[in-house]
């Protein structure tokens, strides 16, 4: 069955209305038909977007400098995409590597690339000790869309009209309403609330007996997220390197994402029992971890290979590219050594 028909049928079964979070869940993750589940070539130059690990090995090699001290030397990566970051980290660290990936198609791709060097998990372990890594996973988790209006706080959902999906609002209720009421915005204002990302981080903290969780993604602290000038929210779709804001185009064929509210993530982690270890821009984090030393080594090894690596550095660090928009949030449990990535420019106090 086509994803479009499956979603339409579920909307009808629900009485003509579906929460946007449910729509996003189906559009991205429905087995075989969703964007991530369907085995499309999402990453890299031939796909819909490029992530930091897909640029080359510089991101992974720099991250490895931070993770080298991790004890025990064990990494659990969530949502490993093409397996590129895992490949770089295993080469650099030679550590035990676990992957939890919800997409069967991507799991196969990772297995083909990494073979017996990784173990695949079906669910979170009950008591994990080590480092949990999630690069660009939180932004793929379903968000609720909320409209703050003169008539009150509404939840934006999806209906079918003349065979096409469209928005339909109804009064927000329950946890969503409670959360929306804590956010101060000028009306009218539309934005997202990532309840699923918070629940996800809580479950990661609960399964962590000792160690660190690193969440790397694009997003802001709350006061920037719900800034008066961001009155249309952060929902974004990607199809073949074209970014646009219509989540109802090509369901299952395009990526749908929302920025991450890092204040809400930090709060969720703390409530679940974790300590906040740091939050920095990606540029600051990578510089603190020693990206310039990795670049120097590359230059010394081969001037010929330096130019492409310098181009990766530009993408990773430039404020106009990924340097400022992407943040690294670290939370942890137990006696973890201080993280070099937050030695300067730690902004966790502003969350
Ligand atoms: C935007 S891709 C990022 C891939 C990779 N981390 C990278 O940076 O290139 C999102 C990844 O998260 C996976 N994913 C989505 N939700 C997940 C979840 N709840 N648990 C684990 N993986 C998930 C997707 O299947 C995909 O592999």
Order of helices and strands: HEHHHEHEHEEEEEHEHEHEEEEHEHHHE
- Bound chemical compounds: S-adenosylmethionine
Radius of gyration: 20 Å
- Specify the number of helices: 13
- Low-pLDDT segments, ≥5 res: none
Q: Please report the total strand number as a whole number.
A: 16
Mean pLDDT: 94
Structural class: alpha/beta
What is the overall shape? Answer: globular
Report on the biggest sheet: 8 strands, mixed
Distance between the termini: 44 Å
Q: Estimate what percentage of residues fall within beta strands.
A: 25-35%
Helix content: 25-40%
Task: Describe it.
The chain is 36% helix and 26% strand. With 351 residues, the chain is α/β, with parallel strands linked by helices. Strands 2, 3, 4, 5, 10, 14, 15 and 16 form an eight-stranded mixed beta sheet that branches. α4 (58-67) crosses α5, α8 packs parallel to α10 and α12 runs antiparallel to α13. The protein is globular. The structure holds S-adenosylmethionine. The site of S-adenosylmethionine has 19 residues, from α3. S-adenosylmethionine binds at residues 36, 43, 51, 53-54, 78-81, 100-103, 106, 135-137, 140, 200.
